[in-house]
Design a protein that fits this description.
The structure holds 2 protein chains of 2 kinds. Chain A is of the alpha+beta class. Chain A contains 13 helices and 15 strands. In chain A, the strands form 3 sheets. A 7-stranded mixed β-sheet of chain A has the order 3-5-1-12-9-10-11, sandwiched between helices. Chain A has a 5-stranded mixed β-sheet with strand order 7-15-14-13-8, sandwiched between helices. Chain A has a 3-stranded antiparallel β-sheet with strand order 4-2-6. Chain A starts with 28 loop residues before the first helix and ends in a 118-residue tail after the last helix. By secondary structure, chain B is of the alpha+beta class. Chain B has a 5-stranded mixed β-sheet with strand order 2-1-5-3-4, with helices on both faces. In chain B, helix 2 crosses helix 5. Chain B starts with a strand and ends in a 6-residue tail after the last helix. Classes of the chains: A alpha+beta, B alpha+beta. The structure holds FE2/S2 (inorganic) cluster (FES) (2 copies). Chain B: This is Ferredoxin.
Chain lengths: 566, 160
């Protein structure tokens, strides 16, 4: 039952609302109750072929050889597709918005990086014929050491998971191995605090488990086009990705979507459409590529696991004066959307509270797990769970009512947020008051009287006069992350990352040192302290190299793309 | 592979098709007959979205050998309405917002129909029991339970 508390913020809102607060029928409801809603698989084609993949049984292995000769002779088999058949066999989803390096093949070529990674695709008359043929494919794997834990993955000497990012961390702003947030001086404030409260929070990956599994059907259309029925939640991502990986212009692709049997974020990865179209191109027949439930659970990208360390500096009266985050997102073997989730999550810190000193280092870490992707509020949900668990921990540590602690530290209209935007339309105080009332949880009368509209702004609207900044995590020799660039690998004069295998076909940066500030590890230095080798990719060679010390403060970044503003 | 002739009633009209031996009823209905209302959710009997009625009893069509419905009567959501006249359950699902993505809906409707056909005024617990084999990832079930109860209360008349 929805209850509208119209007494709150009454003057901010036109109350003659026509739709809000009243039930409205879905426009597709009649189709749903008559069984006529057209999901991707509800399109029948004569001569439909099916596509299934041979998948890696290993977390991490080099592919020595693949023998498909017997599979190709199996009854009903129309085509066996290998990595070399994919026109552009390397992609990252967000290259379409110029964020991140291409790092994931459609079909694994030189190595597999997670259990279930597709290696060979078989197109056949029935799914059963696909499976029978797959059983005849021989792959000779050389099993490699694997890493499944985010903090293990960034230690020196950890197995290198993703050839595009050999230190197992995504590259932010073309130069850092983590996403930074600096607001005020956290370390100084922690020294002044009456209490320092630390916490470690870990969430597990979560499968979206839509009732309809992911899939697509691609069929030849007139005029050399392809029609594609898909379960995608992101029609234009899928269209752009297919055009890019298949090297066809997008006007040859006629995508039809919009009827999705549940998605929850798990249907944005654009896995099925390019593969189904490729099968269609190679056979000239309609091809259906859909996951069964086991594949959906095993290789469907989940909400990634996150690990958060939070350190709060708290005064005796309950004011939180400093909050420090160190976060690790488990991206799995490839980037997909975790890099973006971190940008979004960092903009949310320190949660809906006004804290004058905040710092955060968040790492997008590659491990030999299933790649992670979007799911309902991703980037926010995990850290909010951590923040709110930590608020309870702080309350119990200093002996304060946990709802009063939240109200006291709540952001209010006009407050400066750590990402340097003013807070507006805040309502945490009111939410806490209603929760306390509903839960019959006693709060003091002064807390009942507080309001999001009062007490904000003024001093609280100011960006701290001093913000402590640093160059920690600078990656030497990094190239630009723009889609379309093919940066040359930078080869340092003294190799400092011995476990990085060479994958010459993949554009890569080579880091100066390991990502982990472990004792004994070589110290990170700013890139420009080292002589610039001629092989370093330089997008604007006519401009003189600027020493890093003279650059604008590192806290200036585009919150959408994660790239430096140009 | 050898094909086998199968004859059965689907929503009251006779069907005769050839199916590969060992095919499941879900595939035969969808790809053989062209009734796309039952859905594939798991193919292993865990989600219920493929539920159809065989002689009035709910069955998971993904786990039903097609040849076992020889001479039997099969009902699906495609046959629930009478022409333009929706079934009471369909009206109640609409009125109670009992579908979001709609993918579980055909299976839910069939499970609910089996219940109401044998027990026109079920308790809430009986409704929950009747749809307990059907997974919905969107609605949280409450609207579905309310819809089935509303359909029962209408006795089919309100919507008749
Ligand atoms: S598809 Fe039959 S129970 Fe899931
Ligand atoms: S409405 Fe989406 S699964 Fe039930």
């Amino acid at each position: 039952m929805i209850e509208f508390r119209k007494e709150y913020f009454a003057d901010e809102r036109d109350d003659n609302l026509n739709e809000i607060g009243k039930p409205t029928q879905r426009q597709d409801m009649l189709g749903h109750v008559t069984g006529r809603s057209p999901y991707f698989d509800d399109h029948l084609f004569d001569g439909l072929l099916h596509l299934k993949c041979l998948r890696s049984p290993h977390h991490h292995a080099r592919i020595r050889s693949v023998d498909t000769s017997e599979a190709e002779r199996m009854p009903g088999v129309k085509k066996v597709i290998r990595a070399r058949d994919v026109p552009l066999n390397l992609n990252t989803l967000l290259s379409l918005m110029d964020f991140g390096l291409d790092d994931e093949p459609m079909l694994a070529d030189k190595k597999v990086c997670y259990v279930g990674e597709p290696v060979v695709a078989v197109v056949a008359e029935t799914e059963r014929a696909c499976f029978d043929a797959i059983a005849k494919i021989r792959v000779d794997y050389e099993v490699l050491p694997h890493v499944l834990d985010v903090e293990e993955a960034i230690k020196p000497g950890a197995p290198s998971v993703n050839p595009t990012y050999p230190t197992n961390t995504f590259l932010y702003h073309e130069k850092y191995d983590h996403q930074k947030l600096r607001f005020g001086d956290v370390e100084a404030a922690l020294r002044q605090a009456d209490h320092v409260v630390e916490g470690r929070y870990q969430m597990s990956p979560i499968e979206q488990a839509p009732t309809e599994t992911c899939g697509a059907i691609a069929a030849p259309e007139t005029n050399n086009r392809f029609v594609v029925y898909t379960s995608t939640q992101a029609l234009f991502f899928s269209l752009g990705t297919a055009a890019k990986m298949l090297k066809v212009s997008s006007n040859r692709l006629h995508f039809i979507g919009g009827t999705v049997g549940g998605g929850f974020g798990g249907k944005v990865d654009s896995i099925h459409e390019p593969m189904a179209i490729l099968g269609c191109m190679l056979t000239g027949k309609p091809v259906r590529y859909a996951w069964d439930r086991e594949e959906e659970m095993q290789v469907g990208a989940p909400r990634g696991a996150e690990r958060w360390y939070i350190t709060d500096g708290v005064m005796n009266d309950g004011r939180i004066i400093a909050r420090k985050f160190i976060g690790y997102f488990d991206s799995g073997a490839y980037t997909r959307l975790s890099s973006y989730a971190i940008i979004k999550g960092t903009g949310h810190l320190p949660g809906p509270y006004t804290i004058p000193n905040v710092s955060s280092d968040v790492y997008c870490v590659f491990t030999n797990r299933t790649p992670a992707t979007a799911m309902r509020g991703f980037g926010i949900t995990g850290v909010d769970f951590s923040i709110e668990a930590h608020m309870d921990k702080v309350a119990s540590k200093i002996g304060m009512n946990p709802i009063e602690l939240r109200i006291l530290n709540s952001y209010r209209d006009g407050d400066m947020k750590a990402h340097r935007r003013l807070a507006k339309n805040t309502a945490l105080i009111e939410c806490c008051q209603v929760v306390a009332e509903k839960a019959k949880w006693k709060i003091g009368s002064e807390y009942k009287a507080m309001s999001s509209l009062k007490g904000g702004g003024g001093e609280r609207a100011l960006i701290p006069a001093h913000t402590a900044i640093d160059q920690k995590g600078m990656v030497r020799g990094s190239g630009t992350s723009s889609f379309g660039y093919q940066p040359q690998p930078y080869v340092p004069s003294t190799p400092t990352f011995p476990s990085t295998p060479a994958f010459p076909s993949v554009p890569a940066y080579t880091p100066a040192a390991s990502s982990s500030p472990a004792p004994g590890a070589p110290e990170r230095r700013p890139a420009e302290n080292a002589p610039t080798p001629s092989s370093t990719y330089n997008p604007t060679p006519s401009q003189p190299a600027t020493p890093v010390e003279q650059r604008p403060a590192v806290n200036r970044f585009s919150s959408i793309s994660g790239l430096r503003r140009r | 592979m050898a094909k086998k002739p199968i004859q059965f009633q689907l929503n009251g009209s006779g069907q005769a098709i050839f199916a590969e031996e060992g095919s499941n009823l879900l595939d035969v209905l969808r790809r053989g007959v062209g009734d796309l209302s039952p859905k594939y959710g798991c193919g292993q009997g865990t989600c219920g979205t493929c539920t159809v009625l065989v002689n009035g009893e709910p069955r998971l069509s993904c786990l039903t050998l097609a040849e076992t419905v020889e001479g039997q009567s099969v009902e699906t959501t495609a046959g629930l309405a009478h022409g333009p006249q929706l079934h009471a359950l369909q009206h109640a699902f609409m009125d109670n917002f009992a579908a979001q993505c709609g993918y579980c809906t055909p299976g839910m409707l069939m499970a609910a129909k089996a219940l109401l056909d044998r027990n026109p005024s079920p308790s809430r617990e009986e409704v929950v029991e009747a749809i307990s084999g059907n997974i919905c990832r969107c609605t949280g079930y409450e609207p579905i339970i309310n819809a089935v109860l509303a359909a029962a209360q209408s006795g089919g008349r309100r919507y008749g």
